[in-house]
Amino acid sequence: MDKNSILVQNLYKKFNDFSLDHISFKIPTGRIVGFIGENGSGKSTTINLILNELKKDGGKIKIFGVDNTTQSIKDNIGVVFDECNFHEVFTVQNIGKMLSGVYSSWDDSLYLNYLRKFNLPLNKPIGSFSKGMKMKLSIICAMSHKPKLLILDEATTGLDPIVREEILDLFLEFIQNEEHSIFFSSHITSDIQKIADYVILIHQGKIIFEEQKDDLIYKYGIIKCGKEKFAEILPDDYIIHRETNVSMECLVRDKNVIRRKYKNIVVDNATLEDIMLFYIKGGTQ
Ligand SMILES: Nc1ncnc2c1ncn2[C@@H]1O[C@H](COP(=O)(O)OP(=O)(O)OP(=O)(O)O)[C@@H](O)[C@H]1O
């Protein structure tokens, strides 16, 4: 078994006014990787290149160790976008029948189990479903041909916290099999914070970091202090600083080291959202 489900090396794509700038990262097998970044940062472009829906201008993409243009890997991938693309007149039953003809590995009893678990009616047209029901259906369909890799582009966007929680639990259940992996783009950093093992931040077509989530959450911290105290902090001890109307704020890589070194300075915990905003809205590095 290849130790990476996805390996992206030096990937380059040029549009008129945007380029994905020679990005490299990996999705280790058995892990959930969250892909975060502001609108227009290049998340969907990256996902479409991985799925070979877009043609790359440079670099390499390997899925399960083979080139991503190889047809045979498709059966092992389940894909969910932020919209349900099934025709509104279809019922869940119609869709199951159709997909069983598309995927040789389609598992009808697994599909029915998921439908029951999420209380989706078998005989109602999809047009009568709420957004949450449609999204659940898309995810169930992506999982019922027993893929090893799930690729999700904003799959929990626009859903209420209860439906999101149910879906996140389903992803955690999926990943119990150590041959499975998930690559999951989202604006909702709290979802990524809940379930991801690794986090990749993309900004203006460049990868800013690829880190273990626990390092981000348990090690990173934020100093908030006045300008006088800020003058005592050595620039090597923080990653980025910014000035607000009333104080200085610094993002630090290891809050415990900083707490030991500067006893009279308060270092708060940082959420994934705090860290993302620091890198994107910046300050001075
Ligand atoms: N087919 C295309 N032709 C030209 N430009 C494109 C094309 N697809 C995407 N872009 C541009 O590439 C940039 C990145 O878009 P992309 O959809 O990858 O961002 P994103 O991070 O997924 O954003 P969002 O979070 O809003 O979905 C944008 O500036 C977009 O206008």
> Mean pLDDT score, rounded?
92
- Helix content range of the residues, please? 25-40%
Order of helices and strands: EEEHEEEHHHEHEHEEHEHEEHEH
CATH superfamily of the largest domain: P-loop containing nucleotide triphosphate hydrolases
For this structure, what is the CATH class of the largest domain? Answer: Alpha Beta
The separation of the N and C termini measures: 40 Å
Q: What is the number of independent domains?
A: 2
What would you report as the Rg, rounded to the nearest angstrom?
21 Å
CATH fold-level label of the largest domain: Rossmann fold
Structural class by SSE content: alpha/beta
Largest sheet: 6 strands, mixed
Sheet with most strands: strand arrangement: 6-7-8-3-9-10
Strand content: 25-35%
| Sequence stretches where pLDDT stays below 50 over 5 or more residues | none
Query: Quick one: overall form?
Result: elongated
Q: Count every helix, treating DSSP H or I runs of 4 or more residues as helices.
A: 10
Bound small molecules, deduplicated: adenosine-5'-triphosphate
CATH arch. level architecture of the largest domain = 3-Layer(aba) Sandwich
Number of strands: 14
Protein name: ABC-2 type transport system ATP-binding protein
Keywords: ATP-binding, Nucleotide-binding, Transport
GO molecular function, one term: ATP binding
Domain ABC transporter: 6-229
Account of the protein in words:
- With 285 residues, the chain is α/β, with parallel strands linked by helices.
- It folds into two domains: 4-212, Rossmann fold; 219-281, no CATH class.
- The chain has ten helices and 14 strands.
- It has a six-stranded mixed beta sheet with strand order 6-7-8-3-9-10, with helices on both faces. Strands 2-1-4-5 form a four-stranded antiparallel beta sheet, with helices on one face.
- The two termini are 40 Å apart.
- Adenosine-5'-triphosphate is lined by residues 15-16, 18, 37, 39-45.
